[in-house]
Amino acid sequence: MTDTHATPATYLWIWVWLAALMLVSVFLSEANILPVAKGAVVLLVLGLSTVKALLVALYYMHLKFERFVLAFVAAFPLMLIVLATLLVLSSRLVKL
Question: Is the full-model pTM beyond 0.85?
Answer without folding.
Answer: no
